[in-house]
Amino acid sequence: MSRDPIIEKIRNAKPPDSSLPEIDVSRFSDESGKAETFIRNLESVGGRVVHISSRREISPQIAALFPDAKEIVSCVEGVDCGTIDTGKISSAKELEKLDLAIIEAHFGVAENGAVWVTDKNFFHRSIPFIAAHVVVVLQQEKIVENMHEACARLNEFHEGYGVFISGPSKTADIEQSLVIGAQGPLSLTVFLEY
Fold this sequence. Notes:
By secondary structure, the protein is α/β, with parallel strands linked by helices. The protein has a single domain (about 30-194), classed as NagB/RpiA/CoA transferase-like (Rossmann fold, 3-Layer(aba) Sandwich), CATH 3.40.50.10420. It is about 20% helix and about 25% strand. The strands form three sheets. Strands 1-11-6-3-2 form a five-stranded parallel sheet. The longest helix is centred in the first third of the chain and has 11 residues, at about 35-45. The radius of gyration is 21 Å and the shape is globular.
């Protein structure tokens, strides 16, 4: 049988279009509070949360939490503990020994502990994946309840690149041995600004 009759049969067998169901997002509400749910879910996937009331607290906390970090990129205004001049970086290859990246999230998602970041907040797309450790600054009032709300918010962003990040990199092999940092950052710390 030639290709054309097969393709015609497939076209004729296509089911009719149907509308998507309406989803009552209130069913997914967690009464314990968005911030508490976000923290619980981020910690359950290996992330860590540090509470701050001001961005002035970030640099001293970075020094205490990451004392061995030498190659640091800070992409957050007012956090001046970066050791790399980002204006002189022309390729991701120059960041291969990056110990720590500090970036800002647009918002967080309570139901899975994820944060939404775009390349508006960091100068190279590889930053949150190439660094050994990642610190994300998130304002508590920018946490949404669930992915339904998060996806609705994505219409506000027109950057060329964005990604949800939840916890450090991890993988498990066939023997169910979990490895943290196998393909990316060893840790993810969220500085939650309230």
